[in-house]
């Protein structure tokens, strides 16, 4: 299978991080991170555990606060301004490693909650959208179940549908398949691939090499809170430039 | 003595009562001695109780004062209000119960208990009306159950209870032209129940607010709530009652504020502090990921709290809240110390009536049974609830 | 084409949209509301008091109290209602509260642990009896139980003239009299020594528990603590010139003399509190024992320990760790519940303060003092339990 070549040269930059620094107390978690993502681009973030991948993508919708540097999302600066934070969160969807579905709400309610409460969409309209999204992620029959009654893979697909219900311009994924049993990983990755092909701007922390090679436009390699290497998937997997990336690849490939 | 902690798997045998007795009562020497000693104690207690109950006790004091035990000095010509509320509550309990147990059959014991209560009321005729109205109330429960099974969604019942609560408070006070009722005329079981129910309903919002304040990220708010909670929890309820008794009139600028209201203020503040600690446990049990997910889909802080965190937290601590309510129900007896006539207070008054001198045993036995029935029913309800919630996960 | 990265100069964020500033504002507003509430409260109380020609002051404390207290001393110093002031009478009340709370805690723990073990017995009868005991006590109000113990049990006991002593003790409707080491009339106050002994015992115990946790070597910390306690008592006894003497109750014409006598109110309150609290401690014990891994029973049996040895040496020490926090809660409850003394007329600190308030017309102040005293007691118990908890925590690596 060949990836259709995307022309991103004219696309606007929708995420722009410059000189971002983040501290947890004394601990320096992000060091001068610079990164730009263009509209429609699919960026895969990889790196050793504890290298700051989650911290970075959580900074993009202000689940974490950065101390220095500047993050612009869709032209809006992420500052202490409530209005900016709200606007950015409305445009950025997020999918977590541990799903974080709301256990006391049904699958459909999980999806319609934010559109109804935040965008003030009518219930019937929200449910229509919700059912369409469940169709899109391949589990329309689960609408009235509760999250506890679903398998991990199904839960993660509901989580993706929940994020899509707000019609985000950008989707963030933080290791969406790491908590899943192997047989369920594919069903989630398929949904993510479909999403990538539909032109969604995506930033994914994932070590799924197949996914990265198939749909990623760029790989960003994090280590010790820094962006160490940026390259296309082919380049990165076959000809890593830095020693740290070589070491990391040899570890995850197991030889 | 053996611990059940360490039971060897019993070999499959036909259980006869001899075998059962050997295994459970006389498995070895120590066990046999224990059985004999405990047995002697049990026989002694039961026989002295029976001798007292059937040969010495003057039970006449109970029917003679039944109305007072139930409602205190509630005006006799206004008693229809309590009957009305009782029957509505019975009907709604039936409806709620029925709506929660769709497709389940009523257990046999409920019929037995219902029949016993109805027959007892018919035969003893304690008040001239209760012989009819108690059976009506019992029938209301069963009728409600069957209607509830077919027709009523349990969500509607939650709203119904709120309406019934405020309706009952109104009905127990307001003057409809034929004279009203004053709270100081409430007494007996009615006062016990009103104090506990008003206490838990009023303390609920305050307690939840305190819990949210204490767990909030705002250090000043958290500190103030913590101090309030800990100060109240460090003070005995009697002291809270005494202080409320003295402070409430000063605050509201009148010495003649009704003592029942003062007691309600005291019990509300006291209960709120304990409720806050229970709810705090629930809030802390909600994983951080829930808040993150809610914020990530764009919900505001308030929406996250009200729609995501609180529902989960309250569900987690529901059994604990029932436990707290049982404690509150028992604690209302302390208003006896500040001179109110709930079950314990009214018993004290009755036994100092010259006609009923020396009937302390009968009275306290009876009210203990009343307290026991209510709290035991609630605690077994809570246990069932806990089991249900645990299996739901 | 628009490039979002173009850095338009951002207008400064107005304060009502700035999350940081909003957080500060919210807290300041909350603080102001609370302060305003407190101010209104104090103001209203002062106005109300003025209307009744009273003021909120504590000047009455050094005045002569002038009422009798049925029993107790100001921590070893006798109280004289003719000349002593309110402070002293409050101390007598506090002494009475502490006395009943401490004795109550010890007895309730012993009884509760026994009932808890009985709840787990494989003897069906014992097991059921313990269950009924627990359920009845937990599901009826303490106040009713106390009233029953006082009016129906203790006051209905035979009068002192008719009872025969058991082991030198008299239990009658005028209370309980037991042989005891009592203060000689002219001896030095021994009370401080008892406090010192308890403190020293606890300190030694805590020290060796810490040693044990640090070194991992078995140190009999409990025994060392106990020995210290005894040693301080004995040393104090001789150092102060033997201020105590052994007294045996002797029946006279008007009750008993000698030994330690306590009132029927004390007796009823103590029994009531102990029995009530024991039912809760029983449940805590049961849960604690059940929380110990079954493998522990099997392992202990495998190395040849008997049932009671297993329970004492293996199971209870482990169960104790789970039991300590809820047990501490019960001790707190017991102390606070001792304030129900008012209902049966035992002279505890609340009762004495209540009388003081009525006597001096300063009810508000005496109740505030009562609240303060109970708060300090609660915080002290909570601190001790927490300290013990921290000291005995499992060292996990
Ligand atoms: N809330 C926190 N407090 C303190 N340190 C944290 C916190 N969250 C993450 N860290 C630290 O920051 C570093 C980066 O973490 P993270 O971004 O989760 O790594 P990754 O997702 O790449 O595995 C880690 O060393 C981690 O221990
Ligand atoms: Mg991570």
Describe the structure.
With 255 residues, chain A is of the alpha/beta class. Chain A is built from nine helices and ten strands. In chain A, strands 6-7-8-3-9-10 form a six-stranded mixed sheet, sandwiched between helices. In chain A, strands 2-1-4-5 form a four-stranded antiparallel sheet, covered by helices on one side. In chain A, a hairpin with a 2-residue loop joins strand 1 (13-24) and strand 2 (27-38). Chain A starts with 12 loop residues before the first strand and ends with a helix. By secondary structure, chain B is mainly alpha-helical. Chain B has two domains: 75-179, no CATH class; 181-393, MetI-like fold, CATH 1.10.3720. Chain B contains 16 helices and no strands. Chain C has 397 residues and is mainly alpha-helical. Among the domains of chain C are: 2-47, no CATH class; 86-140 and 267-392, MetI-like fold (Orthogonal Bundle), CATH 1.10.3720.10. Helices cover 63% and strands 6% of the residues of chain C. Chain C has helices at residues 19-51, 86-119, 124-138, 142-153, 191-215, 221-239, 264-291, 294-302, 307-337, 341-344, 349-360, 363-391, and strands at residues 170-172, 175-178, 180-183, 244-247, 250-252, 255-257, 260-262. Classes of the chains: A alpha/beta (255), B mainly alpha (393), C mainly alpha (397). Chains B and C meet through helix 2, helix 10, helix 11, helix 14 and helix 16 of B and helix 1, helix 3, helix 4, helix 8 and helix 9 of C. The structure holds adenosine-5'-diphosphate (ADP) and magnesium ion. Adenosine-5'-diphosphate (ADP) is lined by residues 24, 27, 29, 47, 49-55 of chain A.
- Please give the radius of gyration of chain B in angstroms: 25 Å
How would a crystallographer describe the biggest sheet of chain B?
A: none
Small-molecule components bound: adenosine-5'-diphosphate, magnesium ion
CATH first level of the largest domain in chain B: Mainly Alpha
- Report the mean per-residue pLDDT of chain B as an integer: 87
Largest sheet strand order of chain C: 1-2-7
Q: Terminal Cα separation of chain B, in Å?
A: 38 Å
Low-confidence stretches of chain C: 1-9
The fraction of residues in strands of chain C falls at: 5-15%
CATH homologous superfamily name of the domain at 86-140 and 267-392 in chain C? MetI-like
- Return the average pLDDT of chain C rounded to an integer: 87
User: What radius of gyration of chain C results from the CA coordinates?
Assistant: 28 Å
